[in-house]
Design brief:
23% of the residues lie in helices and 24% in strands. It has three helices and seven strands.
């Protein structure tokens, strides 16, 4: 059964009722050695095209990190919208990674033409500044 649940900040997300643990077993969400009746601690981020983009597993003793889940969703949206990648610990407004140069010529051009909006640490690692 598919439902929508609202929480304190009007954040909604899909919830699947899975009493018989059929979905949990199909997606490998049951951790070895755990009871098959305990709550499953897995988060799947699925894009509008139905593609699984992120899977997070948490031990049963550890709650989920909703700030990190939100950060992941925002990072995926940013990467899709602006054809970039986000570095570790990225937050909205932080600099993003420019896709890898497809040739030595493009890499050299990037290194030679750095400016206030784009800078490179090396030929393979360039960033674009974002407005905060």
């Amino acid at each position: 059964m598919y439902q929508t649940v609202s929480f304190y900040h009007n954040v909604t997300f899909p919830l699947i009722e899975d009493i018989r643990m059929e979905v949990a077993n199909k997606y490998g969400m049951i951790q070895p050695g755990q009871s098959n009746t305990q709550a499953v601690r897995a988060v799947f981020v699925i894009d509008p095209n139905g593609v699984v983009r992120t899977i997070l597993y948490y031990p049963l003793s550890t709650g989920r990190n909703f700030d990190e889940i939100k950060r992941i969703v925002l990072a995926l949206q940013k990467a899709d919208a602006d054809a970039c990648a986000t570095p570790a610990d990225w937050r909205p407004g932080d600099d993003v990674i420019v896709p890898t140069a497809g040739s030595c010529g493009v890499a050299k051009e990037r290194m030679d033409n750095q400016n206030e909006n784009q800078y490179c640490l090396d030929w393979f690692m360039c960033f674009r500044k974002e407005s905060k």
